[in-house]
Amino acid sequence: MTNKLEVRNFSKQFTSPGGPFRKARAMHAVNDVSFDLPAGRVIGVVGESGCGKSTLARLILRLIEPSTGSLKFDGDDLRAKTPTQMRKLRADMQMVFQDPYSAIDPRYTIARAVMEPFEVQGRKPQGTAVEEIDALLTMVGLNPGLAGSFPHQISGGQKQRVGIARALALRPSLLVLDEPTASLDVSVQAQIISLLEQLRDDLGLTYLFISHDLSLVRYFCDEILVMYLGRVVEALPDTDLPARHPYTATLMDSTFAPDPKLRRVITSLEGEVPSPFNLPPGCAFADRCPGATAVCRTETPILSALDGHPVACHHPL
Amino acid sequence: MLEVRDLEVAFGPVAPLSGVSFSLAKGETLGIVGESGSGKSLTAMSVMGLLPLSGGRITAGSIVFDGQELTTLAEPAYRKLRGARLGLITQNPMTSLDPLQKIGPQVDDVAVLHLGMTGSEARARTIDILGTLRIPEPQLICDRYPHQMSGGMKQRIVIAMALAADPDVLVADEPTTALDVTVQAQIIRLLDDLVKERDLALVLITHDMSVVAQTCDKVVVMYAGRAIEHGPVEAIFDAPQHPYTQALIGCIPKGLSDDEHLTGIPGTVPTVLNYPTGCPFHPRCLRAEDVCSTDRPAFVQHGQSAAACHFAGAAP
Amino acid sequence: MTSMTGTAARAMAGFGGTAVGRAFGSWLGKIAGGFLVLLILTAIFAPWITPFDYAAQDLMNGNAPPGWPHLLGTDQFGRDVLSRVIYGARTSLSVSATAIAISITVGMTLGAAAGYFGGFFERAVMTVVDLTWSFPDILIALIFVAIIGPGLTSTTFAIAIAYLAQFTRLTRAQIVRLKRETFIEATINLGAKPRHILLKHLLPNAIAPVIVVGMLAIGDGIVLEATLGFFGLGAQPPTPSWGAMMSSGTAQLFLSPWVIIFPGVVVAVTVIAVNLFGDELIRALDIRDRIRGA
């Protein structure tokens, strides 16, 4: 199996310069992240707010430049591309955004929005523009009669379908899905997930799926990366595997089943994700971890694989 | 403790809420679950008597709290109840706290106002409550401002304010929606413990069926401004009668097998301006027949739960 | 929440015919808009509707009170006040509109570039532009008069510079806000060039409030033109201008008050109409907070 993406030692540091009234601060939004995304697979990146998952998505698409690290797309060094080369390549790697409400220009009709990719790339669709609009809208389960509508005239779920149609217009091979259902109602969320599953089968797409919802990631993805404060703390090669990192275990315990017979005894993990600014040395989870020892507060654990299930913990479960 | 019957709410000519009924005893948690625009937050505001603030009013039905009718209660009397015997926790803790005031005085005020305590008595009580909410170092927290705290901690302060006057009923409107999953779990556990320890009656309003399954004793499912099914939580999840309830449960991945397949519910949630006639769910319902678009279904008791569906109880 | 974004989106999508139509919807809008349309038509067709030549002197008939055939009377040189007020509309409107058009063009370009590119360029542009704001309009006009002499050209440039800062700041604020919208990131991710982002997304979405503020500024421009004319820095005789007419009228204020009253009333009514109609436009477009935020 070839790798669609090879991410190596990705780091992104945001710095806010100091001034007369505040100290300079550095934030490691993404810290030493490496993974392979094989073609045709779906990898889920799960974590809470501030874990760097959305930054990671934007680094991979070079919407933000990483501080360090290398990135290969179809075996090709993506970071060596000039802006012009990159603009052409973007046709092959697209993104679906979290907020469908602001993902379409309010002045654009649906038809114009889904045809914009062709305009931008200077390409012509296979058939006529009308045929292409019909085909794209039908593909994402929208009535082609909506082509003349403006974004404010359609629902959030329909907007997200337009976002997907726009992303797929140029027939990319990689789709980065940044919380595509987080701002939708549950009944609509399930529709969109089902559509994405079907499109993956029909078009042979590779997905990177970013979400805070562990049960959704487990349902939708083949592999899972768990992120905490900018680092991958565990890589589950199979979604059914039990957690080895205490943080992953906490996430699993915090996710409820839709069945009163499967009620959880909620473990007493206290505290919250600390500020990502100027992190102390050692494991970032040490302060909240029930099993933390002295070594956890001095040495940063490295993501290391035992039997193909990597975990970054001094005392894996 | 709290009994709501056929509640109907209107904003001018539109009636975004009608036919909502439920009852709640001490030590019970009732879940009101629904998607956006289902009227669940309006139900909370009706119970708290806060509708006039946004220009709405109750046009029919009754709300009886501890033997007292609330729909006809005058605002000054309501104000005494609110905060004292009815506590409210809102979705966004940032808007429930005064950003310019320290935490301590904000919580103290509730006890001073409703229990007639002196400042120092109230402060002792505040520190005591913050302690029971497992807030570390309550004395120090009292001197902090809201912006110095995390989202989960702010939500705990809001809960502390709701509890300060020792209410009998707590209404929590999406109390964990703005929070991270691990923090959500902590808050849910906290609310669970409070119900047991203080014998509270908790109305938990949420869009999340998993949260309902985890915490509630009874459930009211709402759709397009109406209650469409209610009953004990086990019955609702084991044998949902209304097709919407069935579909809503089916929208959540259970992760039990690889064959599982989510389909969602076709169509979109209606807004108050285009509520369908007949059964509000009929345009999206796979089992709908002609009668569903014309006649509003009445509640049919089936086992322990009741559903407003023409085909409730019939084998699906 | 959704409905709010909906209204805003509708307002943005519908700028043009429908928004102007909605602004005409209220009775205030009808009166104010109707007056402005009438004024513009009068200015355009001035040669055909003026009863007398605006420059023709009739010294025997100087300072004649309103009556027949001089409906609004004559000035000290016996020139017909009505004809001069009508031609004055031409001067006032064209000077003010030209000045604001220049101001909008330059201001939008500078503001868009500053907002889009940011960094040092943005700071440099905004500093210079803010400097122009801190000079009194009269002083700017005097500088132009010193360089190219008094006249309508100086007036036009003075008004253009006086409003430059406002349009630059407003456009910059719009662009900075729009840049954070997801659809901009999405379009960049489609491989769009900066030119496409700027011309197809940022500017079209930023234009509505700029146009409305521009319209309000035309009203202010008329006042400024009249002020400069009053001080003799604007239109030179015999070109009629409302300000210059009032200035020449001061000498005979008690002898023939109509010479100063009628142009004054027209200035006041025009400015009120412009502001009322602008308010209706703001309401129709639902952009009040976007204008205030700049």
UniProtKB/TrEMBL annotation, chain A:
Any idea where this protein resides?
Cell inner membrane
**Single Gene Ontology BP term?**
peptide transport
Q: InterPro entries per the record?
A: AAA+_ATPase (IPR003593), ABC_transp_ATP-bind (IPR050319), ABC_transporter-like_ATP-bd (IPR003439), ABC_transporter-like_CS (IPR017871), Oligopep_ABC_C (IPR013563), P-loop_NTPase (IPR027417)
Using the UniProt record, give the first listed, main subcellular location.
membrane
Q: Which UniProt keywords apply?
A: ATP-binding, Nucleotide-binding, Transport
Q: Does the keyword Transport apply?
A: yes
Q: Please name the GO terms that the record assigns under molecular function.
A: ATP binding; ATP hydrolysis activity
Q: Which PROSITE patterns match?
A: ABC_TRANSPORTER_1, ABC_TRANSPORTER_2
- Where the record annotates domain ABC transporter, the positions are 5-254
The terms describing its cellular component in GO are: plasma membrane
Q: How does it sit in the membrane?
A: Peripheral membrane protein
By its UniProt entry, which PANTHER family does this protein fall under?
A: TRANSPORT ATP-BINDING PROTEIN
Q: What is this protein called?
A: Oligopeptide transport ATP-binding protein OppF
Q: What is the lineage of its organism?
A: Bacteria, Pseudomonadati, Pseudomonadota, Alphaproteobacteria, Rhodobacterales
The record's gene field reads oppF_2
From TrEMBL, chain B:
Coiled-coil annotation reads none
- A GO cellular component entry from the record: plasma membrane
User: Where located?
Assistant: Cell inner membrane
- Family, as annotated: Belongs to the ABC transporter superfamily.
Q: Which protein, by its recorded name, is this?
A: Oligopeptide transport ATP-binding protein OppD
What membrane topology does the UniProt entry give?
Peripheral membrane protein
NCBIfam families xref list: oligo_HPY
One GO BP: transmembrane transport
UniProtKB/TrEMBL annotation, chain C:
List the Pfam families hit by this protein, alphabetically: BPD_transp_1 (PF00528), OppC_N (PF12911)
Locate the transmembrane regions by residue number.
31-50, 93-118, 138-165, 202-235, 255-278
Membrane topology, as annotated, equals: Multi-pass membrane protein
Q: Which domain of life is it from?
A: Bacteria
What are the entry keywords? Cell membrane, Membrane, Transmembrane, Transmembrane helix, Transport
Cite the InterPro entries for this sequence: BP-dependent_transpt_permease, MetI-like, MetI-like_sf, OppC_N
Which Gene3D superfamilies does the protein's record reference? MetI-like
Concerning CDD domains, the annotation shows: TM_PBP2
CC annotations in GO:
plasma membrane
GO biological process terms held by the UniProt record: transmembrane transport
Question: Where is it predominantly found?
Answer: membrane
Span of the signal peptide: none
Quote the subcellular location field of this record: Cell membrane
Q: Which family does it belong to?
A: Belongs to the binding-protein-dependent transport system permease family.
- PANTHER family in the cross-refs: OLIGOPEPTIDE TRANSPORT SYSTEM PERMEASE PROTEIN APPC, PEPTIDE ABC TRANSPORTER PERMEASE PROTEIN
- Designated name of the protein: Glutathione transport system permease protein GsiD
Q: Which organism is it from?
A: Roseovarius aestuarii
Give the gene name. Answer: gsiD_4
